[in-house]
Amino acid sequence: MTYKMHKLTHNNLNSFIKNEIIKDIKKLRGKHTPISEVVHNDSKLLRVEKIYDLRKEKKYFYLLIVRNYNKLPKLRYFLAISLANNSSDLLVQLARNYALKNDLKIIQYSIFPKTLRIQLLLLKELKLIEDYANSIDKLKIYRKEFRSKLIKIKNLLENE
Question: How far is residue 73's CA from residue 87's CA, in Å, rounded to a whole number?
Fold first, then answer.
């Protein structure tokens, strides 16, 4: 992809997000911790610029806008769904395989830093406008599967 095409695609995505997704959406205030990403066995930090709360329109969803460690694109957009309000190592292990198979990222992150509650988030990077609707559907399906796994585990433990 040439520089011009890359810039054009990113500008289209940027205007789509500003005009269609976050137009009337509440931005979460406060400082947000950076997200770590492993690239070629090296850990890179993605500084979180803004987090938008999409839960009014899309239950359990957030949009994270992060500053890229590379020059292009300057900003990256991640659609996130909350799998659990209180994360744990067990929950991460349950969600890990699906995330790896489907090119998703899973993080333990405090959306609301003042509450000291670490949520388990499943992230899908938006690179094209067409990714948005497809990503919402994918993330919803996996959240449903994940929650049903948790219920099965709970029932197994109760029946012991």
Answer: 31
DSSP run (H or E) holding 143:
helix 131-158
Total of domains in the chain: 1
pLDDT digits (tens, 9 = 90+) for 20-46: 888 888 898 888 899 998 888 999 999
Cα radius of gyration (the chain)? 17
Among 61, 67, 48, residue whose Cα is nearest residue 113? 48
Concatenating the DSSP letter of every residue in 6-68 gives HHHHHHHHHHHIIIIISTTPEEPPS----EEEEETTEEEEEEEEEEEE-TTTSTTEEEEEEE-
